[in-house]
Amino acid sequence: KLKKMGSVRSCRIYYCAFALEWDAIYSHYGQSQYALGFLKSDKIDNVGALNAENYFYRTTDRVAPHNAFTSGKNLNNAIKALKYRKEYKKGYKGHFKFANFGEKVDLNSKKTAKTVEMGYVINKPWYKFKNGQYYRYQYGEKHIDDQNNKQLHCSNIIIQFVDSTLYPDNKSLNITLNGSGKGWFITNGKAVQVTWKKDSETSGPTKYYYEDGTEIVLNQGKTYICQVETTQNITVE
C-alpha cells in the first residue's frame, strides 16, 4: 500500500550480500561497476534499472541521484514480471532471536546508551533514547518520514565494525563482511560490546554474540544495523 518508497539509490556489492542474508528481493536504481556482474547473474533476485526501469520514477522536488522513487504496487508488478518467488526458500530459518511477547531484554551492563552517534561526517546521524525507543536525528534535526510525518525510530541498534579498502577506481568501498569482528548491541537504554561472525559473503546470516559466546536476543520492534569502519569514531553514552 506504500505509494512512495525512496529515494532509491544505486547498488554496491555489499548490499547484495546483505540481501542474501535475508533471502530478500533486492531493489536498487543504478549500480557500481563492481556489482554489475553479480546483479546480472542468477545469484540474486533484484529489481532495478537494468531489468525493470519502468517501475521507477523521478520527482522534481529533489536533485539526482536523490529523486528516484518506486511504490509497493510497482515493486510487486516488477517481481511478477520478472517471475521471482515471493516465499522463503526451503530451509530458511530466519535471522535473529527475539524476546517473547510481554518480555523485555534488559542488558546486564553498566554502560548507558541514551545517545548514540555513528560518526558519519556528512549527515551526522544520531539516536536519542526515549520511552523505550531510539529516535533518529540527522542534519541537526529530527529525521522525519515525509509519508506519515513521524520521526524514524527503532527498538534495537547493532553497530558492526568492519575493515574496508577501495576498489581500483579509488572511490568504491570494498567492505570485508565475512570472518569476525567486534561491535555494540544497544537496546532499552543500555549497551554491551559484542562480537560478530559470518562464514561467507554470499550465504548465511551474520550472527552476533555476547562476550560469553551466546547469541544476542533482540527486543521486539525495528532493528537498525550499522556497519562502520574500524577507524570510525562513534559515541555511546
Find the structural class using helix and strand composition: mainly beta
Count of DSSP E strands?
22
Report the principal-axis shape. Answer: globular
Helix content: 10-25%
Polypeptide structure, described:
The structure is a single chain. This protein is mainly β and 237 residues long. The chain contains four helices and 22 strands. Strands 7, 8, 9, 10, 13 and 22 form a six-stranded antiparallel β-sheet that branches. The chain has a five-stranded mixed β-sheet with strand order 19-18-17-14-21, with no helix packed on it. The longest helix has 11 residues, at 72-82. The protein is globular, with a radius of gyration of 19 Å. The model has no long low-confidence stretch (mean pLDDT 95).
In short:
The chain contains four helices and 22 strands.
Topology:
Blueprint: E1 5-6, H1 13-21, E2 26-27, H2 36-40, E3 46-47, H3 49-52, E4 57-58, E5 68-70, H4 72-82, E6 97-98, E7 115-117, E8 126-130, E9 133-138, E10 141-142, E11 144-145, E12 150-151, E13 153-154, E14 156-162, E15 164-166, E16 173-175, E17 179-187, E18 190-198, E19 207-209, E20 217-218, E21 223-229, E22 235-236
Parallel strand pairs: 2-3, 6-20, 14-21
Antiparallel strand pairs: 1-5, 4-5, 7-8, 7-22, 8-9, 9-10, 9-13, 11-12, 14-17, 15-16, 17-18, 18-19
